[in-house]
Design goal:
about 0% strand, Serine Threonine Protein Phosphatase 5, Tetratricopeptide repeat, about 230 residues, single chain, globular, mainly alpha, 10 helices
Length: about 230
C-alpha cells in the first residue's frame, strides 16, 4: 500500500470545481470545493463534507431528479470514504457515479468522476483490494478518455486525466505526456481549469526532464487531498 490513504475519495472529486459558473458560497458544490482544496486538516475537511452530504440528501429528498445534486452526492460520499477510510462510502460513491453515468453518458463531469474513482482506488489500495471494490484500470481509463473527448477544449479534463494516469503508473509516460500537453494549450474558463492546467505544467516539466517517478509523486500531491499525504 502506498503512502496515500486506503480508500479513494475519487480523484474525480475534483469535478466539484469543474463547472465554469461561479458557485454560491453556501452551495454543496462550493462546500466540497473548500473541503478539497482550502482546508488545512482532515477534521475540518470531514466536517465540510458531512455538511455537504446533509444538504445534498435534503435537496434530493425534495427533487430526486436534480442532476447536479446527483453528481455532487456521489463525489461527496467519495470524499468521506477517503477521509474516513470507509469501504461503505467508497462503494456508495461508486454506485452513485455509475448510475449517474448510465443516465447521462455524454456528461464529461460524470465520466471524469467515475474514471477518477477507478484509478484512485487502485492507487490508494492496489489492484487486489481495489478489485474487490470493483475498481478497474481499463474502465477508469476508458471513462477518462470519454471525458476528454466530451469536454471540448477545456483544460480540466485532459489535465486531470494525465495527472491521474501518471500518478497511478509512472511508466505511463507517453499517454500522460500527450494529455498534459493538450491541457497546457486548452482553454481555462473556470478556476479548476486554471488550477489543473498549472499542475499539468509542473508535472509535464518533470516528464520532459526524464524524471517520471518524480512526476508521479508530484501528480499524487497535486490531486485532491494530496496535501494531506
Amino acid at each position: 500500500m502506498n503512502r496515500r490513504s486506503a480508500i479513494s475519495g475519487l480523484a474525480a472529486a475534483i469535478v466539484a470545481l469543474s463547472a465554469p459558473q461561479v458557485a454560491v458560497a453556501a452551495s454543496p458544490r462550493a462546500t466540497l470545493v473548500s473541503a478539497a482544496f482550502e482546508t488545512g486538516g482532515k477534521s475540518q475537511a470531514l466536517a465540510l463534507v458531512n455538511s455537504a452530504i446533509g444538504a445534498l440528501n435534503a435537496t434530493l429528498a425534495k427533487d430526486a431528479n436534480n442532476r447536479d445534486a446527483q453528481l455532487q452526492q456521489g463525489i461527496a460520499y467519495g470524499y468521506r470514504g477517503k477521509l474516513t477510510r470507509s469501504i461503505g462510502d467508497a462503494r456508495k460513491a461508486r454506485d452513485l457515479l455509475t448510475k449517474f453515468v448510465q443516465r447521462h453518458p455524454s456528461d464529461p463531469e460524470g465520466q471524469v468522476a467515475l474514471g477518477g474513482w477507478h484509478l484512485t482506488v487502485l492507487n490508494d489500495v492496489g489492484s487486489l483490494v481495489g478489485g474487490t471494490l470493483g475498481a478497474s484500470k481499463s474502465k477508469g481509463i476508458a471513462a477518462l478518455d470519454r471525458a476528454v473527448k466530451q469536454g471540448a477544449n477545456r483544460a480540466f479534463f485532459p489535465a486531470y486525466s494525465g495527472l491521474s494516469r501518471i500518478a497511478l503508473d509512472s511508466s505511463d509516460v507517453s499517454a500522460a505526456k500527450a494529455l498534459l500537453q493538450k491541457a497546457s494549450s486548452a482553454a481555462a474558463p473556470s478556476e479548476v481549469d486554471r488550477i489543473t492546467r498549472a499542475a499539468a505544467g509542473r508535472v509535464l516539466a518533470l516528464i520532459n526532464s526524464g524524471k517520471p517517478k518524480e512526476a508521479s509523486r508530484l501528480a499524487q500531491d497535486l490531486l485532491p487531498f494530496g496535501r494531506f499525504s
